[in-house]
Design goal:
The longest helix has 8 residues. 10% of the residues lie in helices and 32% in strands. The protein is mainly β. The strands form four sheets. Strands 1, 2, 3, 6, 11, 12, 13 and 14 form an eight-stranded antiparallel beta sheet that branches.
C-alpha cells in the first residue's frame, strides 16, 4: 500500500481506471488496476470527486488532455506503391504521441554545382532531396505496441516459465529481442480534425522502452523515413471536406 500525505499540500492526481474489457481491447493488457482508499484524516474543506464536477465541459477537458499530442493512423504499405485516393483509415492501427514530441522534419537538399572549368563559374545546380523523417514518443508500454513494432515475442507464462520477484510476486508477459522495420502508409490528423497530412510510404523503427522522467510514463521512441511511393504521390496535404 501507499501512504499519501497531502495535508497542506496539493491535490492528488486524476485517477482513471478503465474496465477490463476496455483495457484489453485498447491496450492489450489482461487486467485492470483496482484500488481502494481509506481516508485517515482530512481538513474541514476537503473534497473527493467521483467522476467530474458539475459544469465541466467534456470537449474542453478532452482538448486539454490531448493538447500537443499527435494522432497517427497506420495502414500496412503495399509494395510497389499506394494511391492516396480512396484510402480508409477508420479501422487502421493508431498510436498517440507524448505531448510536443511529434516532428515531421525534412532535411535541406544537398547541391552539386556544375561549373565551366576554365572560368570556375557555376552554370547550374543539381539538387538531391535530403532525408524526410517523422519522430515521436509513444507514451505506452502496452504489449500491443511492442507486438506491432518488434519481431515475434517470446511468451513468459505458464508453469516454470514465469518470473518471480521480491516477496514471491509472480510476473508473466512477453519477451522481445529485435525491433522490426515496419512499412506503413500514414495519416497524421490535427487535433481539430480539420487538417491532416497523408504519407504514402514510411519505414518506421522504434527504440527499446525508455524512462527519463519519473513524473511521466515510460515511452517508446520511433523514427520513420518517408520514402518514394512508386508512381503515386509521396504525400498529400488535406482539409476536412464540407
Amino acid at each position: 500500500f501507499d501512504f499519501l500525505d497531502t495535508m497542506g499540500g496539493g491535490n492528488l492526481s486524476l485517477q482513471v481506471h478503465p474496465t477490463t474489457q476496455f483495457i484489453r481491447e485498447q491496450f492489450g493488457m489482461a487486467y485492470t488496476q483496482d484500488e481502494s482508499y481509506y481516508i485517515m484524516d482530512a481538513g474541514d474543506d476537503a473534497t473527493v470527486f467521483l467522476g467530474v464536477r458539475n459544469g465541466v465541459d467534456k470537449e474542453a477537458m478532452l482538448e486539454d488532455l490531448h493538447k500537443g499530442n499527435a494522432a497517427i493512423s497506420l495502414l500496412p504499405y503495399t509494395a510497389g506503391g499506394v494511391s492516396l485516393k480512396g484510402l480508409d483509415f477508420e479501422d487502421a492501427d493508431q498510436v498517440f504521441t507524448e505531448q510536443d514530441t511529434f516532428t515531421l522534419a525534412p532535411a535541406d537538399p544537398s547541391t552539386n554545382a556544375f561549373k565551366v572549368d576554365q572560368y570556375d563559374e557555376t552554370i547550374d545546380f543539381d539538387f538531391e532531396n535530403g532525408d524526410w523523417t517523422i519522430n515521436g514518443n509513444i507514451p505506452s508500454w502496452a504489449t500491443a505496441v511492442f507486438d506491432y513494432f518488434f519481431n515475434e515475442p517470446e511468451a513468459i507464462s505458464g508453469d516454470g516459465n514465469t518470473i518471480k520477484g521480491q516477496e514471491g510476486t509472480v510476473y508473466a508477459g512477453k519477451g522481445y529481442k529485435d525491433a522490426k522495420e515496419v512499412e506503413v502508409t500514414v495519416l497524421v490528423e490535427s487535433k481539430s480534425k480539420k487538417t491532416a497530412i497523408a504519407l504514402g510510404h514510411v519505414k518506421i523503427v522504434v527504440n527499446p522502452p525508455a524512462i527519463d522522467d519519473h513524473q511521466k510514463p515510460g515511452y517508446v521512441k520511433f523514427v520513420g523515413y518517408v520514402l518514394a511511393n512508386g508512381e503515386y504521390s509521396k504525400f498529400a496535404i488535406l482539409k476536412a471536406a464540407a
